Amino acid sequence: MNPPPDHPAIPPRKVGVLLTNLGTPDEPTPRAVKRYLLEFLSDKRVVEIPKLAWQPILRGIILQTRPKKSAHAYGLVWTDDGSPLAAITRAQCAALQGAFGPGVIVDYAMRYGNPSIPERIDAMKEAGCERILLAPLYPQYCAATTATANDRAFAHFAAKRWQPAIRTLPPYHDDPAYIGALKTLVEAELAALDFEPEAVIASFHGMPQRTLELGDPYHCHCRKTARLLSEAMNRELVVAFQSRFGPAKWLTPATDTVLEELGTKGVKKVAIFAPGFSADCIETLEELAIRGRESFEGAGGERFAYLPCLNDSPPGMEMLRSILTRELAGWVAVE
User: Fold this and answer.
1) How far is CA 240 from CA 36, 126, 133, 223, in A?
2) What are the distances in angstroms from CA 173 to CA 128, 232, 254, 309, 317?
3) Coil, strand, or helix at residue 289?
4) Helices vs strands, H then E, count in the chain
5) 82-138 pLDDT, tens per residue?
């Protein structure tokens, strides 16, 4: 039955896939970084300290000193396309357009910064999406990443009179498609080196030890990813955790400490990669590729290689198509 002539236009029913990642400043300047850090470090999922105790510290010491230092780090990795994380996530989104049929819109958003999750959800709703798959691009589940991205979407939906049907992408830390993609890419990158590493390090983003004790499965997910990948590659991997912040005890061993210890023990050649990141970003390109090299060489190491993330590589995109197709089952028919 056709609607009456004066009825508002009804867009064709569609399904949306919203890729979400952590976020980035709009530009590598102290002012933009300060704005970004205020949003990021005010998230109670990220810093689990009572607001009344934390906000004076954040707005006082941290936001007065950290933005300049972080802006310098961002400047070292900024590209003509902007932030590496934003550029790569945008490329991943573009590569998935049309992968699930003409009735599926693929878009991307950032938990902090732009484009925002509420903004892109509204765009999907305007385009006729009555079903949306939220896809946080974090292989290992963590409350400070996966959960807060979904929280932001759910909070926006809570204010909507007409909500779409919602699904969320589960963690895929042990998915055969993910382990297979990592194996393919890491082995290809290692084969392309002009030296044979004596140690290969899998560096995951760190989290406070307290999160493990409270029941967050992140540490277990990271360890399982590394074990499965090591078995698939038939090669020992050294597991480490990077990006410590503040005085609290964090997951160990720390990546910078591992690199220094390897150098002092006489290991001369290492390769490092970051399997927990779906796209290269400041934590991989500056913290690992630049500062990691400095730590290793400063301790006596001679050859250092950083291996890129899956990004929009063919193995990475095939993996994303596979796991997203599975989660869209029943909503769309994908060949």
Assistant:
1) 27, 44, 32, 10
2) 32, 14, 21, 14, 16
3) helix
4) 13, 8
5) 999 999 999 999 999 999 999 999 999 999 999 999 999 999 999 999 999 999 999
